[in-house]
Design brief:
By secondary structure, the protein is an alpha/beta fold. The protein is 50% helix and 15% strand. The protein is built from 30 helices and 26 strands. A hairpin with a 2-residue loop joins strand 24 and strand 25. Helix 5 packs across helix 8 (136-153) and helix 24 (580-627) packs antiparallel against helix 27. The protein is flat and about 90 Å long.
Length: 775
């Protein structure tokens, strides 16, 4: 009975402390057996260890016995190859991954090794594994770091990065385990969807994805589309409009809503713009062509801020990933907005391309029959992981209890009062010699704080989107005695902060002082981001502390809950607020922000789900055209005389390739046209709500009939091409018949939809109409 009560009490504590998490008892029960195997496998030679791991290849799925074996062999391989003996909690993480969970492991608890052992386990089941990372640096680092472990377990590993050629990519994907950034793997999927020869395929069919920083990839970036574009021409930015809009003033010529997602001209603003553009009527037939340019230029001017949303570096606009505080490589806004921002900054417009294909990160991961993940902050998004991916979270306890002191938020009436308190906090802690990590909201704030600290003789190292190439070195030294590091968001940095610096020489000195002190300059729009910053302190049982400073006038509050409750009073001298109502209000604002992001995710998925279904159907047809003689059969049936005429001048293989090239070209072109059509529909669909129609239903009503036209149109266009194709001594000149693929292609990510939801767009239209009638 006491044992039963103890087990029930343990489960109750888990339910309270780790809501929405999976039960670990089944895996914990295997730890003694793994421990018993340890002495046995230690006696094996390297060759015997590899041979024993190879015997697991006979198992299609891992039952308890196989989980025990792979964990015991993996622990020994890591001990020999890395001089690291995996802790029991790391093996729990490995088993959680091997059974398809998202495992939550705190910072510094060894997720990389746990993920590697799970990847090896899946590979030994005969499954191709992609370890999906948040950036290219981590993909290469982790693959090279874990390679000796994989070698001992008899599985092969490679990685993909932007510099690889097509042949090198094919070789990397041929390994049993391939590491790659989520964007790079996605771009390879898009490239494979445009090939015209089977031998040009880079990726085999996907089987298992193990996602590092799973909450960031599966939630924060889930709605981000990855795009393959083909050259068309340079984007045309309306410089005249940009110069006019630059002179407009908030409150007089235009207004914005509280959450910074909409901007619109006032009557006075419209008059100024119309006069400056030669007396046109923006809302009449004569000015309708300029209205779109004005709207997008106003969005760039009013809602996108340099050093917050983007930086200008090397003469280029580079977007900043809001959840990581660093440059979002290869990322851009939709072409019109990208060109408008470039015009705003007086930069030449970058090339514009037609979208050949695209895929969201969520759709990319949905291609894998099995998905697992690891992160330090999964419980907060457990419901989303279940809703969108049918994944359950397993919380892995730390190897050493966390002793970090999480201090209550310090709240102030104004940002200036808050900043003075932050400076005082940094000075007070710095005088003791404790290392300090300050997490800021954006590039501009990090640099402003650094300047203020320098003026009062408190030098610091800054890590933000401007110098993210040096991030590993900067973070590695952030635990040095006396160090002050100011950084934008810490998610996905991939490097632990070791007390005493990278070499640990001052470790004991820093430990005695209390370890790393983390300061947040404001609460983030997500509690997970708060947790990720706090988690940089208190690693593996180290001492440490964390505190967030906040203001009732922070952007989080103003955008999500601007109506502050009455009766909250601040200290007259410092502006500090100790009323618990202020803390509740800030917490509420954060929950509202999380709800908004969740609704954007849901809304995006509602629309892209239909597109992905259509793409899947068309890909089946494309694959049949690519791998069989279907194209030749179709064209011979539809145009037998012309087919026979061309057949006389070509050998059988060449004729099959010709027909295949024609039909694949028209399929890809029609899909590109369909995407453009759907984009136009999606951008205007909010107007349907004015007629009391459901935008999503209307989107489906328009999208489905258009899609059904594609396959008949492929055959129709292909027949016309075949009939018009010119026979030459060298064969058939398809280029002369218009069958020309883009001279160049490139890939990029479209930034999170910078525009608002359908409902908000509708309200914006209604407000604008009412204002014009009233004025």
């Amino acid at each position: 009975m006491p044992a039963l009560i103890s087990r029930m009490g343990k489960r109750l504590r888990r339910l309270i402390e780790r809501p929405a998490s999976a039960e670990l008892t089944q895996y914990e029960a295997l730890l003694p057996a793994i421990g018993e195997l340890e002495a046995e496998v230690e006696k094996l030679s390297d060759a015997e260890l590899t041979e024993r791991a190879g015997k697991l290849r006979l198992e299609a799925e891992f039952a308890d016995a196989q989980l025990t074996e792979i964990c015991a062999l993996g622990r020994e391989a890591a001990r020999r190859a890395l001089s690291e003996r995996a802790f029991d909690v790391q093996l729990l993480g490995t088993m959680g991954l091997l059974t398809g969970h998202v495992v939550q492991m705190e910072t510094g608890e060894g997720k990389t090794l746990a993920g590697a052992l799970a990847a090896a386990g899946y590979a030994l089941q005969g499954k191709r594994v992609h370890v999906v990372t948040v950036n290219d640096y981590l993909a290469r680092r982790d693959a090279e770091w874990m390679r000796p472990v994989y070698d001992l377990l008899g599985v092969s590993v490679g990685w993909v990065e932007p510099s690889l050629t097509r042949d090198e990519r094919r070789e990397a994907y041929a390994h049993e385990i391939t590491y790659g950034a989520v964007s790079e793997i996605g771009f390879d999927v898009l490239r494979d969807r445009l090939i015209t020869r089977v031998e040009d395929l880079a990726q085999p069919e996907p089987e298992v994805a193990i996602v590092d920083e799973a909450d960031s990839v599966l939630v924060d970036e889930a709605r981000v589309p990855l795009v393959m574009a083909g050259s068309v021409d340079s984007a045309v930015a309306d410089m005249e409009v940009a110069n006019v809009v630059r002179r407009l003033r908030l409150g007089l010529h235009y207004e914005t809503d509280s959450d910074g997602r909409n901007a619109w001209l006032t009557t006075a603003g419209a008059s100024v713009v119309e006069k400056a553009l030669g007396g046109i009527d923006l809302y009449g037939d004569s000015g309708s062509g300029r209205l779109a340019a004005v709207n997008v230029a106003l969005h760039a001017h009013a809602l996108l801020t340099r050093d917050v949303d983007y930086i200008v570096r090397d003469g280029k606009v580079q977007l900043i990933n809001a959840s990581r505080g660093r440059v979002a490589e290869l990322q851009r806004w939709p072409d019109g907005l990208q060109a408008a921002v470039e015009a705003k900054e007086q930069l030449p417009a970058t090339d514009r391309g037609e979208i050949l294909d695209s895929i969201t990160v969520q759709a990319l991961l949905a291609r894998y029959p099995q998905v697992a993940g690891m992160t330090g902050t999964a419980v907060a998004v457990a419901e989303q992981l279940r809703e969108f991916y049918r994944l359950e979270v397993a919380v892995i306890p730390p190897n050493t209890p966390n002793v970090r002191e999480d201090l209550p938020d310090r709240i102030f009436a104004s940002p200036s009062q808050k900043l003075r308190a932050i400076e005082a906090e940094i000075r007070e802690v710095h005088e003791t010699g404790r290392p300090i990590l300050v997490g800021t909201q954006d590039v501009a704030e990090s640099e402003e704080l650094a300047e203020k600290l320098a003026k009062v003789d408190l030098p610091c190292v800054v890590l933000n989107a401007r110098n993210d190439a040096e991030e590993a070195a900067i973070i590695a030294e952030a635990g040095t005695y006396g160090a002050v590091t100011v950084s934008t968001q810490m998610a996905g940095r991939g490097t632990d902060i070791r007390l005493g610096g990278a070499d640990g020489k001052d470790r004991e000195r820093v430990v005695e002082l209390g370890g790393l002190h983390v300061i947040g300059t404001a609460r983030y729009p997500s509690s997970r981001l708060d947790g990720q910053l706090r988690g940089r302190s208190g690693r593996q049982g180290d001492p440490g502390s964390a505190v967030f400073f906040a203001s009732l006038n922070d952007e989080l509050v103003l955008s999500n809950s601007p109506d502050v409750p009455e009766g909250i009073h601040a200290d007259e001298d410092t502006g500090e607020i100790t009323d618990s109502a202020a803390q509740r209000h800030i917490n509420h604002a954060q929950r509202v922000a999380e709800g908004v992001h969740l609704e954007i995710h849901r809304n995006t998925w509602r629309y892209t789900r239909l597109i992905e279904h259509q793409r899947t159907e068309l890909l089946k047809h494309r694959d049949e055209l690519l791998r069989t003689e279907l194209a030749a059969q179709k064209l011979e049936e539809a145009a037998p005389k012309r087919y026979a005429e061309i057949e006389e001048g070509l050998d059988a293989d060449a004729l099959v390739r010709l027909c295949r090239d024609i039909m694949l070209f028209h399929l890809d072109e029609l899909w590109s046209d369909h995407l453009a059509y759907l984009t136009d529909v999606r951008e205007s669909i909010h107007l349907r709500a004015l007629a009391r129609e459901t935008p999503l239903d209307e989107f489906h009503r328009l999208a489905i009939p258009e899609f059904r036209k594609i396959i008949p149109a492929i055959e129709e266009r292909s027949v016309k091409t075949l009939e018009e194709a010119e026979l030459t001594e060298d064969g058939v000149d398809l280029a002369a018949s218009g069958v020309r693929r883009p001279s160049s292609t490139w890939t990029y990510l479209v930034h999170d939809n910078p525009f608002d939801s359908d409902f908000e767009q509708t309200l914006k239209q209604v407000r604008s109409l009412l204002r014009r009638k009233k004025d």
